[in-house]
Amino acid sequence: MPLLEISNLKKSYVAPDGERSSVVDIASFDLDAKAQLALSGESGTGKTTFLNLIAGILKADSGSVKIDGRDMTTMSEAGRDRLRAENIGYIFQTFNLLQGYTCLENVLLGMSFGPGPDREFAKEMLRRVELGHRLHHYPRQLSTGQQQRVAAARALANHPKLVLADEPTGNLDRRNAGGALKLIREACKENGAALLLVSHDPHVLDQFENRSELHKLNRAARVNEEEAPAR
């Protein structure tokens, strides 16, 4: 059984003028445990919405998202929150670190939504991402690359089965992007987590043996593109 199973997943939004626009329409998608897959996704292909549906941050209009055999789409919001905390680590493009908390506190807060804070393991995760000397620094006192590493440590601190990464190198320069990507992939491998990464950067995508195109999976993106006015 795949770790992640998606079937007939659909999500749409209603525009201010009342017109409904389909954003995600994916017939099927699977990801095995411990696998690492990169999805190429340009703006408008629904990549962030797709990841948010997998994480249970958004509720699908229809279809199913099964994580380790449990269907996210049939759960209440509280149920989706629990399933996400127990099984999913999310690395956001904008990091989403809490600016009033230190590196260590950011990781501990992330752990509080799962099995519970473990101060020593949180420190160990920050040491693994080479931030053991920055435990008590605040995000504003870190470089962009260091903030990204805190976000990676937080995502992996609860021993997730699946890590979602939305343009995780999008705010980094080429050198730091390469280092961050290597760190994320190695950390997932060490922790036995599957990785689903979405990016539009060919330099990032080229690092993955397993690649796919979200555009080809997402019928909604193809339809929207076909309906767009010619330029």
Give an overview in words.
With 231 residues, this protein is an alpha/beta fold. It has a domain at 4-95 and 163-227: Rossmann fold. It has nine helices and nine strands. The protein has helices at residues 47-55, 77-87, 103-111, 119-128, 144-156, 174-191, 202-205, 214-217, 219-227, and strands at residues 4-14, 20-31, 36-40, 62-67, 70-71, 88-91, 162-166, 194-199, 211-213. The strands form two sheets. It has a five-stranded parallel β-sheet, with helices on both faces. A four-stranded antiparallel β-sheet has the order 2-1-4-5. β1 (4-14) and β2 (20-31) form a beta hairpin. The longest helix is centred in the C-terminal third of the chain and has 18 residues, at 174-191. The relative contact order is 0.20. The mean pLDDT is 89.
Choose one word for the global shape.
Answer: globular
CATH class of the domain at 4-95 and 163-227: Alpha Beta
**Average residue-wise pLDDT:** 89
Provide the CATH architecture of the domain at 4-95 and 163-227: 3-Layer(aba) Sandwich
Helix content: 25-40%
Rg, nearest Å: 18 Å
The CATH fourth-level homologous superfamily of the domain at 4-95 and 163-227: P-loop containing nucleotide triphosphate hydrolases
What structural category arises from helix and sheet content?
alpha/beta
Strand content is 15-25%
Largest sheet: 5 strands, parallel
What is the succession of H and E elements?
A: EEEHEEHEHHHEHEHEHH
Arrangement of strands in the largest sheet: 6-7-8-3-9
CATH fold title of the domain at 4-95 and 163-227: Rossmann fold
Q: Could you tell me the number of beta strands?
A: 9
Give the low-confidence spans: none
Distance between the termini: 45 Å
Number of helices: 9
